[in-house]
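Methods: example folding runs. The two proteins below were folded one after another, and each record is reproduced exactly as written to the output file, sequence line first and structure-token line second.
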Amino acid sequence: MKIGSLFDVDVNISITLVVLIVIAIFLGNGTEIATIFFIFMAHETGHVLVAKALKMNVNEIELLPFGGAVRIESIFELNPINEIYIAVAGPTVNIVLLLGYSTLQNLEIINPNSNDIFIRANLILAGFNLLPALPLDGGRVLRAILSREIGMKKATKVAVYGGLILSLFLAMTGVYALHLKIFNPTFFLLSGFLAYSALKEKRTASYIFVRDITFKRDVLSKEGALAAKELVILYDMPLKEVIKRFVPHRYHFVKVVDHSFRLWGYLDETEIANGMVDYGVNIQIGRLLQSK
């Protein structure tokens, strides 16, 4: 549900979060909710400002019960450095807010006990988001670091598993709290949203390679040069397995061989991408080569 715009970017809020806000206001926690909402928006604004500074096209900001998500049209995740910059921008804003708030307290401009929720919310949002699990910011940093060595798709899977493990931990914590006769629905809500978002990231990873082609064309057009990587692939390997060996910021040339290492021929990355579109991801690379 759209609630406004920020820097020409639509701001949407999930229905679940709206329900939680209404319940909190009904229980007399309106001030706390307003403070947390401000902190959420500041966090997401950090992501947006850095993305725009890197010339990315930001589609929307979505506010969720556990934080928020910035939808970026540009395939920034294919550039590990950009992904790191954008990911750490949110927690950095929370840290800056904490430092500014602490300074105002030291100057006695703000009563040290006047708004403790401000400190707790910033600490929790920054700390929680830095955990190495998708869809959290720390998960995006982990993916960016790993992608150089194992490729974007595998790196995404590793970070997704981190999200699922964290989701399971939160659910188990909620169950343990119930055992102690303490009911805290926050654990179960966070667990559900993390699991859903992590699996969504895993599904998205399957399409990253196709978008990577467009990104590399843009880089080549702007810079005039692009690093290349050569792979030796058996003729009977399907394309979906071939692209798992691809890494970001490299243009790939594939040498197709049989089991005796006899050369069948060469395919470049664009030909493989076109082959996926024309024949599907399950076609063997040898058959694609023969169809040329």
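Second run, written to the same file directly after the first:
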Amino acid sequence: MRSFASDNNSGVHPAVMEALRQANTDHAVGYGADPWTAQAVRTVRAAFETPDCEPLFVFNGTGANVTALQLLTRPYHLILCAETAHIYVDECGSPAKMSGAQIRPIQTPDGKLTPELIRPHLHGFGDEHHSQPRAIYLSQCTELGTVYTPDELKAITALAHEYGMYVHMDGARIANACVALKCSLRAMTVDCGIDILSFGGTKNGLMVGECVVVFNSLFSGEAKFGRKQSAQLASKMRYLSCQFTAYLTNDLWLSNAGHANQMAARLYAALKEVPGVRFTQKPEANQLFLVMPRPIIDRLLQDYFFYFWNEAANEIRLVTSFDTTEADIDAFIRTLKTIEL
């Protein structure tokens, strides 16, 4: 079944599969002391144009977020995030459990934090009765499919650093954001003052694995210990790391995300002409949020798998991937147009 449920449902890009095949040769020293991991570290540093950043390959997105937030916080700290944030909604409380820090959600209309939304929560510093504000968590793209501009990111990081706080970016879909804004990885992160990034790949052609990229040198020395304590140190590291070399070679990450965004734009163009369809968020990358009559949704679910975002409001989410085809979209629209209320 072809799916619009999530870019996690997509396959593995052939170039990544080939990298895995080539890495599956003979024996190699474990835990990252292998040539594939050394090459991947060099490749990540080059991609972000930051030779002194510290890339840490991990198993998954939740593990990447936990590893990053444990580096930035202590159990008496406070993490601020949007109320729709992945760490607050979709990670079963693991960031709070593993870091011990309190997570405070902030209501937003579009999934994006702003200095104005954050500032009211910046109080209690030095008061031993209150969790100390320490980290701000951002998703790029957000869980509502919206995208932070570099200027918006810089405003948030400037505020955070003014108060002695740090910013963690969950970049599960950062490639889609870079395509949307025609922006480099460095311009989206380092140049904006991001301290630590969870650099995603499984939503964009990788089989498994993410990469925590530590930009702030204050945390580089402790990073590998945090990864180990978070149960994210792979013994056969080459199978995680080799994928990132393929991913970042010949701009595969960029072309994959570009295709996903183009397919979302095609799907949006077709859906907005359908009576009864209304979009609830501005389509900016590869996620679409929309409402339509419930009988239509129920009929579509017979042939396609996708998620409700707000079932009470008949709001659904459709996501395109690097391997979504024009035929997939055209078939979906044909099915939609045959449904009679």
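Comment on the second run: The chain has two domains: 15-251, 252-338.
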